[in-house]
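Replying to the earlier thread about multi-chain prediction with a worked example.

Input:
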Amino acid sequence: MEEIGNLFHGFSIVLQPYNILLMVIGIVLGVIIGVLPGLGGANGVAILLPLTFSMSPTSAIIMLSCIYWGALFGGAITSVLFNIPGEPWSVATTFDGHPMAQQGKAGEALTAAFTSSFVGAFFAIVVITLVAPLVANFALRFGPAEKFGVYFLAFCSFVGMSKEPPMKTVAAMMIGFALAAVGLDEMTGQLRLTFGFTHLLTGFDFLIAVIGLFGIGEILLTMEEGLHFKGRAAVINPRIVLQTWKELPKYWITSLRSSVIGCWMGITPAGATPASFMSYGIAKRLSKNGRNFGKGEIEGVVAPETAAHAAGTSALLPMLSLGVPGSPTAAVLLGGLLIWGLQPGPMLFVENKEFIWGLIASMYLGNVVGLIIVLTCVPIFAAILRIPFPIIAPIILVFCAIGAYSVNNSSFDVMMMMVFGVLGYLLKKCNYPLAPLVLAIVLGDKAEEAFRQSLLASQGSLAIFWSNGLVSTIMALGLIALFWPLISEAWNRVRSLATAA
Amino acid sequence: MNEKSEAAGATGPSHRMAEVGLTVLMIVFALIVIGGSLQVGIGWASDGPRAGFFPFYCGLFVFAASIFNLFAAFSVDARAGLFAEWGQLRQVLSVVVPSAIYVAIVPWVGMYLASALLIVVFMVWIGRYSLILALAIAVPVMIATFVVFERWFLVPLPKGPVEAYLGY
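Result:
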């Protein structure tokens, strides 16, 4: 039980007053980021990343991951009170959360949402604690071909599982890979795709892309919709909280199912948003109150929130153990690891035990702290949303610009952020997914390196990706994920033929 | 290529036009990537695949997927819907234009002054607030930013003539 000992050591690091302070700051900032339009988990973390350059990696990751938990909590506030999902994964929460608020049960809805978020996240953290070291240990055996196989699997899942048209996903993803290739080629030391522009020597920084695509793009979308906030007041007092907590254990089976769905969707890079929809849909079909879903059923809040948090949290599992992030925010955190000089992937568990177990311990504590903070401070956070958009929008813009500048101290990056912003708006409007684009920029160099090293070993033959049982299994899983829509359709057709006969 | 759909009296560029425009942009991007890869070589050298090898195939994929998307965009009914109404686009541009000017002047006048200007312009022009209120928000926000970044976290931001005058 070496893990338990490591975990307790992690707790002893996290419980230092400085780290607890960072945790609280992170959660509060995260909730604000989650509440504000135009600032999501991914670009919120990206903007604040430069501030952590001077901290120790463990303290930095504690603060940044707490921003992430805070953002996950914050999305629920806007969904329930304002019927505006602050984050895409809270869309399903509006279906029943907002009707509950309209019936004057905002307090109950929020308590249910926060508690379910906590349950989902907690389940995912336990999974990470138990599974991540095993996966990492297993992955230590991976050579370049297996590494490439894992990237292949991750990106195939995007194509097969996203709700956007597959060819648009492929286009977005490959644009990301191409952007990642710009600049110095690390293997040959040659410059490529710079066309003589000195600004392009260092390539495109994915943090700039994240801030532009998600931050600026989101502000432009909000502007187009001409958003007016009309919020409901929320009353949360200990009585309501206790009352709701008494009611929640009834839905333990929904919680458990949603946690499992969330973890699965988070580890495969499908992400929190589809997880929340899927969990809501299944709960609606299986619940005996299913008919009341959409009219303010508390179970309809429990299901998507649990799944979204389980997915959001478990997205860190492949990031830590394999170096493949399960979500854009996990990708930004991975970028942070690289900047602090840590190599994400299986070696982290061997070489940086203190860091990894500090992070895992901070997940447990961060979610407890987060639950307490959101339950006690909802009215304050809701008040932030009442600040008119013309005031808050330029301030968000300014912070995006400052964040983009401070990544590399480059004014050119600030301009690139604007270009990415307009691009993000167009892509979003035309139904292109942004997550694979960002992940491709992050992983581009590593995927290319693994690919080229494999080919080098095999003298250019693609057969190396089918050369042993392990890599063949990973590649086959990738192909299944890639063609999943076709496979499931064929399966349904076979089944309907069978029932007809 | 200038079909306007007149659904419910609202006008604006059609969704199809936007999709076609975007895919054409992607095709151009793909061709640039392919061209750039060919320049550095896409074949094999003595030390393995050359620098252009990987981006070349990425470019090919973007090209092929975009051609597919182009045909998909054309097969959609031209009157299927609007990309956005002109009024909405004007709203979007009213953010894009000041922000673009903002990012362009940051290197010259410094982050703090440019940011304060952006907040003021935005509040007065789009929000129709009074100049005094706008200043009352912009100036404290930027002073707070200055304290947090320059003093607390020691992250230097671009500074211009005003900061130089004040001795920074």
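The longest helix of chain A spans residues 106-139.

Feel free to reuse this layout for your own posts.
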